[in-house]
Amino acid sequence: MYTFSVREKSRLCKLRDKFIGYVDASLLRFCELKFSMQKFRLSMSLFCVEGVTSHLEKWIELAVTNKVKELDFNVRTNGESRYNLPATIFSAKFVTTLKLSGCNLEQSSDTIRFHSLKKLELHRVRIGEQMVHKFISECPLVEDLILSLFSHFKRLCFSCTQTED
Question: Tell me: the pLDDT tens digits for 64-98?
């Protein structure tokens, strides 16, 4: 594992803060103009998830509020920590494509309201078997389901009742 010097950490923190400021300003401007959001893609590496959790939650909420169609959320962390997705993401009824990487979906949400979801891609996501079944049963329009780099499932079973002609 690589250890950063104090100078390197300081420089990286400044870059992170600049990036956060840019995303904040861009999303707020987008919302003020009342544009409908087609796609929100975020990919970032973090030393510590806790330092930016409030920003990530706000960005997801702004995207969901602006009726985002495609949500691509990739958070890379060092070590075992994962970003816990906020409950607001489960009410994103206009999302047609959801791609998540490096997040935690282990805690169960009461309901999932992805009424328009057609493509679900989960990569390096900690997710419980109950949540996988919830996605499958409560998202009837899903056509593409991609699950990759899951290490904690012994077996995952589900059936498909609808076939394409």
Answer: 989 999 999 998 877 667 788 888 888 899 999 99
Number of domains in the chain: 1
Q: Does a structural domain hold residue 46?
A: yes
Two structure tokens written together for 129: 């078997």
Domain coverage including residue 85 = 24-148
Tell me the sheet residues that pair with 43: 74
Q: What residues have CB less than 8 Å from 101, skipping those under 6 apart?
A: 73, 74, 75, 76, 122, 123, 124, 125
Percent of the chain scoring above 70 in pLDDT? 82
